[in-house]
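Sample intake sheet
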Amino acid sequence: MKILKLLAASSLLICTLSACGGGGGGTTTGGTDTVVSGVATKGPFLQDSTVNVYAVANGVKGALLVQAKTSDNNGSYSANLGSYTGPVIVEVSGTYQDEATGGTVTVADTAPIRAALPLVQGSVTLPVTPLTELAVQKTGGSLSAADITAANTLVSEIFKVDIVATLPVAPTAVALSGATQAQKDYTLALAAVSQMASQAAGASNTEKLQSALADLSQGISATGMNTTVSTTFQGALTDFVANPNNQTGVSDTTSTSLVNAGTLSKSYTLSLSGNASAAQAIQFDLVLPQGVTVNTDSLDSSLLAGSLAMHEAYTGALVAARYTSGTVTVGIVSTPGVSTGAFATVTCNIPAGTTAPAASAFSVSNVTVLDASENPMSGVAVQIN
Protein backbone atom coordinates (compact mmCIF):
# COMPACT_ATOMS: atom_id res chain seq x y z
CA MET A 1 0.00 0.00 0.00
CA LYS A 2 1.41 3.41 -0.98
CA ILE A 3 0.93 5.07 2.39
CA LEU A 4 2.48 8.42 1.51
CA LYS A 5 -0.10 8.90 -1.26
CA LEU A 6 -3.13 6.94 -0.11
CA LEU A 7 -3.02 7.86 3.55
CA ALA A 8 -2.35 11.55 3.00
CA ALA A 9 -5.31 11.77 0.61
CA SER A 10 -7.71 9.75 2.70
CA SER A 11 -10.64 11.13 4.71
CA LEU A 12 -9.19 9.20 7.64
CA LEU A 13 -6.16 11.46 7.82
CA ILE A 14 -8.19 14.58 7.07
CA CYS A 15 -10.54 13.81 9.97
CA THR A 16 -7.63 13.20 12.31
CA LEU A 17 -5.86 16.41 11.36
CA SER A 18 -9.00 18.52 11.68
CA ALA A 19 -9.82 17.02 15.09
CA CYS A 20 -6.33 16.91 16.57
CA GLY A 21 -5.77 18.44 19.98
CA GLY A 22 -7.16 17.55 23.40
CA GLY A 23 -7.22 18.30 27.05
CA GLY A 24 -4.10 19.61 28.72
CA GLY A 25 -5.14 19.82 32.35
CA GLY A 26 -7.18 23.01 32.04
CA THR A 27 -4.36 25.51 32.59
CA THR A 28 -2.60 27.93 30.25
CA THR A 29 -0.14 30.26 31.89
CA GLY A 30 0.19 33.86 30.84
CA GLY A 31 -0.42 37.39 32.14
CA THR A 32 0.26 38.74 35.61
CA ASP A 33 -3.04 37.94 37.30
CA THR A 34 -4.52 34.53 37.88
CA VAL A 35 -7.93 34.29 36.20
CA VAL A 36 -10.16 31.25 36.56
CA SER A 37 -12.98 31.02 34.03
CA GLY A 38 -15.26 28.43 32.48
CA VAL A 39 -18.83 27.26 32.75
CA ALA A 40 -20.95 26.22 35.72
CA THR A 41 -23.43 23.63 34.63
CA LYS A 42 -25.71 21.05 36.06
CA GLY A 43 -27.78 22.08 33.29
CA PRO A 44 -26.20 25.44 32.66
CA PHE A 45 -26.56 27.77 35.64
CA LEU A 46 -28.58 30.87 34.84
CA GLN A 47 -27.23 34.41 34.85
CA ASP A 48 -26.23 35.85 38.24
CA SER A 49 -25.67 32.50 39.92
CA THR A 50 -22.92 32.74 42.54
CA VAL A 51 -19.37 31.49 41.98
CA ASN A 52 -17.08 31.46 45.03
CA VAL A 53 -13.38 30.70 44.62
CA TYR A 54 -11.50 29.62 47.74
CA ALA A 55 -7.82 29.10 48.41
CA VAL A 56 -6.74 25.68 49.64
CA ALA A 57 -4.17 25.51 52.43
CA ASN A 58 -2.79 22.39 54.09
CA GLY A 59 -5.31 20.21 52.29
CA VAL A 60 -8.45 22.08 53.45
CA LYS A 61 -10.63 24.88 52.08
CA GLY A 62 -9.24 28.23 53.16
CA ALA A 63 -10.08 31.88 52.61
CA LEU A 64 -12.55 33.16 50.04
CA LEU A 65 -10.45 34.68 47.26
CA VAL A 66 -13.22 36.20 45.17
CA GLN A 67 -16.95 35.97 44.55
CA ALA A 68 -18.14 36.21 40.96
CA LYS A 69 -21.43 35.79 39.11
CA THR A 70 -22.32 33.83 36.02
CA SER A 71 -22.54 36.28 33.14
CA ASP A 72 -25.17 34.56 30.99
CA ASN A 73 -27.66 31.69 30.93
CA ASN A 74 -24.97 29.30 29.67
CA GLY A 75 -23.24 29.32 33.05
CA SER A 76 -20.21 31.31 31.87
CA TYR A 77 -18.09 32.83 34.62
CA SER A 78 -14.73 34.54 35.13
CA ALA A 79 -12.98 35.22 38.43
CA ASN A 80 -9.81 37.30 38.78
CA LEU A 81 -7.73 36.05 41.71
CA GLY A 82 -5.10 38.75 41.45
CA SER A 83 -1.62 37.53 42.38
CA TYR A 84 -2.79 34.27 43.96
CA THR A 85 -1.28 31.03 42.69
CA GLY A 86 -1.87 27.60 44.17
CA PRO A 87 -4.69 25.11 44.67
CA VAL A 88 -8.32 26.25 44.64
CA ILE A 89 -11.81 24.95 45.17
CA VAL A 90 -14.69 26.62 43.31
CA GLU A 91 -18.27 26.46 44.59
CA VAL A 92 -21.36 27.37 42.58
CA SER A 93 -24.91 27.94 43.77
CA GLY A 94 -27.96 29.37 42.03
CA THR A 95 -30.55 28.17 39.54
CA TYR A 96 -30.40 26.01 36.44
CA GLN A 97 -32.78 24.35 34.04
CA ASP A 98 -32.83 20.64 34.68
CA GLU A 99 -32.25 18.47 31.63
CA ALA A 100 -34.41 15.53 32.67
CA THR A 101 -37.41 17.37 34.10
CA GLY A 102 -37.24 20.65 32.20
CA GLY A 103 -37.91 22.51 35.43
CA THR A 104 -35.91 25.30 37.06
CA VAL A 105 -33.96 24.00 40.05
CA THR A 106 -32.17 25.90 42.80
CA VAL A 107 -28.84 24.77 44.23
CA ALA A 108 -28.50 26.21 47.73
CA ASP A 109 -25.27 27.84 48.87
CA THR A 110 -25.22 25.29 51.69
CA ALA A 111 -24.90 22.44 49.15
CA PRO A 112 -23.03 23.93 46.17
CA ILE A 113 -21.57 22.17 43.14
CA ARG A 114 -17.78 22.14 43.47
CA ALA A 115 -14.59 21.75 41.43
CA ALA A 116 -10.94 21.73 42.51
CA LEU A 117 -7.59 22.21 40.84
CA PRO A 118 -4.17 21.47 42.36
CA LEU A 119 -2.65 24.66 40.88
CA VAL A 120 -3.98 27.81 39.27
CA GLN A 121 -1.63 30.30 37.67
CA GLY A 122 -2.18 32.64 34.76
CA SER A 123 -5.28 31.95 32.67
CA VAL A 124 -7.07 28.80 33.84
CA THR A 125 -10.18 27.12 32.47
CA LEU A 126 -12.29 25.12 34.91
CA PRO A 127 -15.84 23.81 34.46
CA VAL A 128 -17.90 23.27 37.62
CA THR A 129 -20.22 20.30 37.15
CA PRO A 130 -21.63 17.27 38.96
CA LEU A 131 -18.63 15.30 37.68
CA THR A 132 -16.15 17.76 39.21
CA GLU A 133 -18.31 17.62 42.36
CA LEU A 134 -17.96 13.84 42.26
CA ALA A 135 -14.17 14.23 42.02
CA VAL A 136 -14.15 16.52 45.06
CA GLN A 137 -16.08 13.87 46.95
CA LYS A 138 -13.57 11.23 45.85
CA THR A 139 -10.72 13.17 47.47
CA GLY A 140 -12.10 11.89 50.76
CA GLY A 141 -11.90 15.37 52.26
CA SER A 142 -8.18 15.80 51.59
CA LEU A 143 -7.59 18.64 49.16
CA SER A 144 -3.86 18.13 48.77
CA ALA A 145 -2.54 18.68 45.25
CA ALA A 146 -1.91 14.95 44.87
CA ASP A 147 -5.40 13.97 46.04
CA ILE A 148 -7.10 16.57 43.81
CA THR A 149 -5.12 15.36 40.80
CA ALA A 150 -5.84 11.70 41.55
CA ALA A 151 -9.58 12.29 41.99
CA ASN A 152 -9.90 14.38 38.83
CA THR A 153 -8.00 11.71 36.90
CA LEU A 154 -10.10 8.86 38.28
CA VAL A 155 -13.46 10.47 37.46
CA SER A 156 -12.16 11.51 34.01
CA GLU A 157 -11.18 7.90 33.31
CA ILE A 158 -14.52 6.57 34.54
CA PHE A 159 -16.61 8.92 32.35
CA LYS A 160 -14.22 9.01 29.38
CA VAL A 161 -13.84 12.78 29.27
CA ASP A 162 -11.31 15.16 30.83
CA ILE A 163 -13.60 16.74 33.41
CA VAL A 164 -11.40 19.79 34.02
CA ALA A 165 -10.05 20.48 30.52
CA THR A 166 -13.33 20.05 28.61
CA LEU A 167 -16.14 22.59 28.71
CA PRO A 168 -19.62 21.04 28.40
CA VAL A 169 -22.18 22.97 26.38
CA ALA A 170 -25.89 23.58 26.69
CA PRO A 171 -27.85 20.33 26.18
CA THR A 172 -29.50 21.40 22.93
CA ALA A 173 -29.13 20.22 19.35
CA VAL A 174 -27.86 23.65 18.27
CA ALA A 175 -25.12 23.76 20.90
CA LEU A 176 -24.06 20.17 20.32
CA SER A 177 -23.88 20.63 16.55
CA GLY A 178 -20.80 22.83 16.95
CA ALA A 179 -19.26 20.89 19.84
CA THR A 180 -16.34 18.50 19.89
CA GLN A 181 -16.96 14.83 20.63
CA ALA A 182 -15.57 15.34 24.14
CA GLN A 183 -17.98 18.22 24.77
CA LYS A 184 -20.90 16.12 23.51
CA ASP A 185 -19.90 13.25 25.80
CA TYR A 186 -19.54 15.55 28.81
CA THR A 187 -22.90 17.21 28.17
CA LEU A 188 -24.69 13.88 27.87
CA ALA A 189 -22.96 12.49 30.96
CA LEU A 190 -24.37 15.43 32.94
CA ALA A 191 -27.80 14.81 31.45
CA ALA A 192 -27.59 11.17 32.55
CA VAL A 193 -26.75 12.33 36.09
CA SER A 194 -29.80 14.59 35.89
CA GLN A 195 -31.90 11.60 34.86
CA MET A 196 -30.50 9.59 37.78
CA ALA A 197 -31.34 12.44 40.14
CA SER A 198 -34.92 12.64 38.84
CA GLN A 199 -35.38 9.00 39.84
CA ALA A 200 -33.44 9.15 43.12
CA ALA A 201 -34.77 9.26 46.67
CA GLY A 202 -35.19 12.66 48.31
CA ALA A 203 -37.73 15.22 49.40
CA SER A 204 -36.24 18.01 47.27
CA ASN A 205 -34.32 18.38 44.04
CA THR A 206 -31.16 19.12 46.05
CA GLU A 207 -31.58 15.92 48.03
CA LYS A 208 -32.24 13.93 44.85
CA LEU A 209 -29.04 15.25 43.25
CA GLN A 210 -27.03 14.58 46.38
CA SER A 211 -28.46 11.06 46.51
CA ALA A 212 -27.53 10.36 42.88
CA LEU A 213 -24.00 11.69 43.38
CA ALA A 214 -23.62 9.68 46.58
CA ASP A 215 -24.59 6.51 44.70
CA LEU A 216 -22.05 7.27 41.99
CA SER A 217 -19.34 8.12 44.52
CA GLN A 218 -19.90 4.92 46.47
CA GLY A 219 -19.87 2.88 43.28
CA ILE A 220 -16.52 4.22 42.05
CA SER A 221 -13.17 2.88 43.18
CA ALA A 222 -9.67 2.43 41.84
CA THR A 223 -10.92 -0.63 39.91
CA GLY A 224 -13.66 1.31 38.11
CA MET A 225 -17.39 1.61 38.60
CA ASN A 226 -19.14 -1.38 40.12
CA THR A 227 -21.63 -3.28 37.98
CA THR A 228 -24.74 -2.09 39.85
CA VAL A 229 -23.94 1.60 39.52
CA SER A 230 -22.65 1.20 35.96
CA THR A 231 -25.95 -0.42 35.01
CA THR A 232 -27.88 2.38 36.72
CA PHE A 233 -25.88 5.07 34.92
CA GLN A 234 -26.23 3.41 31.52
CA GLY A 235 -29.94 2.97 32.15
CA ALA A 236 -30.28 6.65 33.04
CA LEU A 237 -28.44 7.61 29.85
CA THR A 238 -30.79 5.46 27.79
CA ASP A 239 -33.81 6.88 29.62
CA PHE A 240 -32.64 10.44 29.03
CA VAL A 241 -32.27 10.14 25.26
CA ALA A 242 -35.83 8.74 25.19
CA ASN A 243 -37.08 11.49 27.51
CA PRO A 244 -39.47 14.01 25.86
CA ASN A 245 -37.40 16.75 27.56
CA ASN A 246 -34.28 15.68 25.65
CA GLN A 247 -33.35 18.64 23.44
CA THR A 248 -29.94 17.34 22.36
CA GLY A 249 -31.05 15.61 19.18
CA VAL A 250 -29.14 12.51 20.30
CA SER A 251 -31.24 9.36 20.24
CA ASP A 252 -28.55 6.68 20.13
CA THR A 253 -26.19 6.33 23.12
CA THR A 254 -23.72 4.33 21.03
CA SER A 255 -22.86 7.58 19.24
CA THR A 256 -20.88 8.66 22.32
CA SER A 257 -17.92 7.35 24.29
CA LEU A 258 -20.28 7.03 27.26
CA VAL A 259 -21.00 3.45 26.21
CA ASN A 260 -17.62 2.80 27.88
CA ALA A 261 -18.43 4.76 31.06
CA GLY A 262 -17.62 2.77 34.15
CA THR A 263 -14.51 1.15 32.73
CA LEU A 264 -10.97 2.12 33.66
CA SER A 265 -8.24 3.04 31.20
CA LYS A 266 -4.85 1.46 30.73
CA SER A 267 -2.09 2.71 28.48
CA TYR A 268 0.22 0.57 26.37
CA THR A 269 3.35 1.60 24.49
CA LEU A 270 3.79 1.05 20.76
CA SER A 271 7.38 0.54 19.58
CA LEU A 272 9.32 -0.19 16.40
CA SER A 273 11.94 -2.91 16.27
CA GLY A 274 14.48 -3.58 13.55
CA ASN A 275 16.28 -1.04 11.38
CA ALA A 276 13.69 1.70 10.96
CA SER A 277 16.09 4.59 10.40
CA ALA A 278 15.09 5.09 6.75
CA ALA A 279 11.36 4.69 7.34
CA GLN A 280 9.04 7.62 6.75
CA ALA A 281 5.61 5.98 6.71
CA ILE A 282 4.03 3.14 8.68
CA GLN A 283 0.63 1.52 8.61
CA PHE A 284 -0.57 -1.41 10.72
CA ASP A 285 -3.55 -3.02 12.42
CA LEU A 286 -3.65 -3.36 16.21
CA VAL A 287 -6.08 -6.10 17.22
CA LEU A 288 -7.53 -5.58 20.71
CA PRO A 289 -8.40 -8.34 23.18
CA GLN A 290 -12.08 -9.16 23.56
CA GLY A 291 -13.94 -6.55 25.62
CA VAL A 292 -11.19 -3.94 25.31
CA THR A 293 -12.18 -0.76 23.45
CA VAL A 294 -10.91 2.71 22.62
CA ASN A 295 -12.68 6.07 22.56
CA THR A 296 -13.71 7.21 19.11
CA ASP A 297 -15.48 10.02 17.30
CA SER A 298 -19.04 8.94 16.61
CA LEU A 299 -19.02 10.49 13.12
CA ASP A 300 -16.17 8.53 11.54
CA SER A 301 -14.80 6.10 14.18
CA SER A 302 -11.46 7.94 14.27
CA LEU A 303 -9.70 7.71 17.62
CA LEU A 304 -10.10 10.65 19.98
CA ALA A 305 -6.90 12.49 20.85
CA GLY A 306 -6.54 10.86 24.24
CA SER A 307 -6.67 7.33 22.81
CA LEU A 308 -3.53 7.56 20.68
CA ALA A 309 -0.76 9.92 21.77
CA MET A 310 2.42 10.24 19.73
CA HIS A 311 5.64 10.63 21.65
CA GLU A 312 7.44 13.97 21.62
CA ALA A 313 9.84 13.08 18.81
CA TYR A 314 6.84 12.65 16.49
CA THR A 315 5.00 15.87 17.34
CA GLY A 316 4.97 16.96 13.69
CA ALA A 317 3.96 13.61 12.23
CA LEU A 318 0.74 13.12 10.27
CA VAL A 319 -1.29 10.52 12.12
CA ALA A 320 -4.56 8.75 11.32
CA ALA A 321 -6.23 6.08 13.42
CA ARG A 322 -9.62 4.41 13.08
CA TYR A 323 -11.37 1.74 15.12
CA THR A 324 -13.52 -0.96 13.50
CA SER A 325 -14.75 -4.23 15.02
CA GLY A 326 -12.00 -4.69 17.60
CA THR A 327 -9.18 -3.45 15.41
CA VAL A 328 -7.36 -0.10 15.40
CA THR A 329 -5.82 0.78 12.03
CA VAL A 330 -3.00 3.29 12.40
CA GLY A 331 -1.15 5.26 9.73
CA ILE A 332 1.83 7.55 10.39
CA VAL A 333 3.77 9.77 8.01
CA SER A 334 6.90 11.39 9.48
CA THR A 335 9.06 13.20 6.92
CA PRO A 336 12.00 13.67 9.34
CA GLY A 337 12.04 9.86 9.56
CA VAL A 338 11.10 7.22 12.07
CA SER A 339 13.35 5.82 14.77
CA THR A 340 13.56 2.40 16.34
CA GLY A 341 11.96 2.37 19.79
CA ALA A 342 8.78 3.72 21.35
CA PHE A 343 6.73 6.05 19.19
CA ALA A 344 3.19 6.23 20.65
CA THR A 345 0.92 5.36 23.57
CA VAL A 346 -2.49 3.79 23.04
CA THR A 347 -5.03 4.11 25.87
CA CYS A 348 -7.72 1.46 26.09
CA ASN A 349 -10.91 0.96 28.08
CA ILE A 350 -10.80 -2.07 30.36
CA PRO A 351 -14.20 -3.50 31.41
CA ALA A 352 -15.07 -2.79 35.04
CA GLY A 353 -14.17 -5.56 37.46
CA THR A 354 -11.70 -7.22 35.09
CA THR A 355 -7.92 -7.29 35.07
CA ALA A 356 -6.19 -5.30 32.36
CA PRO A 357 -4.85 -7.74 29.76
CA ALA A 358 -1.14 -8.18 29.26
CA ALA A 359 0.42 -6.67 26.16
CA SER A 360 0.79 -10.20 24.80
CA ALA A 361 -3.03 -10.39 24.50
CA PHE A 362 -2.86 -7.79 21.69
CA SER A 363 -1.65 -8.61 18.21
CA VAL A 364 -0.25 -6.55 15.35
CA SER A 365 -0.87 -7.42 11.70
CA ASN A 366 -0.73 -5.98 8.18
CA VAL A 367 2.40 -3.94 8.90
CA THR A 368 3.58 -1.86 5.93
CA VAL A 369 6.66 0.36 6.17
CA LEU A 370 7.83 2.69 3.39
CA ASP A 371 10.97 4.74 2.90
CA ALA A 372 11.07 8.28 1.45
CA SER A 373 10.77 6.90 -2.09
CA GLU A 374 7.72 4.85 -1.07
CA ASN A 375 9.64 1.62 -1.36
CA PRO A 376 8.53 -1.14 1.03
CA MET A 377 10.98 -1.96 3.79
CA SER A 378 11.42 -5.33 5.46
CA GLY A 379 12.66 -6.28 8.88
CA VAL A 380 10.71 -3.59 10.75
CA ALA A 381 8.08 -4.73 13.26
CA VAL A 382 5.54 -2.99 15.49
CA GLN A 383 5.38 -4.21 19.10
CA ILE A 384 3.11 -3.36 22.03
CA ASN A 385 4.17 -3.47 25.66
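Comment: The two ends are 26 Å apart (CA to CA). The CA atoms of residues 95 and 277 lie 60 Å apart.
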